[in-house]
Amino acid sequence: MISEKIVSFHDKNKDLNQLAQQIITTLDADGYKTQLTTNSPTGIIIQAKKAGILRDIITADRAFTIMITGDSNNFAIHIGIGKWVQNIAVAAAEALLLSVLFLAIDIPEMLWTKHVENEVLKKIIQLI
Length: 128
Description:
This protein has helices at 16-29, 53-58, 88-97, 107-127; strands spanning 2-10, 32-40, 43-50, 62-71, 74-83. By secondary structure, the chain is of the alpha+beta class.
């Protein structure tokens, strides 16, 4: 993922599968297309991308990748930008093991990405 952020949480006693579903519900309500895998060896992985004309102009294969690792009392949320993977269940482990895997992005897209990434992360923190 490009520009990955990691936020750790301790002593929250949060069901991580339920948290993943809440994240998906929140993103879906904001107009994102999402996909989820819970069978990754690295944790729960959610990909989200926003549809629309601006998205088509910027680059339609980019998506947010949100990974939840750890257990209910000690977990981390990793969020970053990467490439939309058609079959996330197959490619999740490979994509997340390589930290700088995806294409370089230009300055306007990077600024937009950081803005949206921060907004998504704020919403996730509110769920916790």
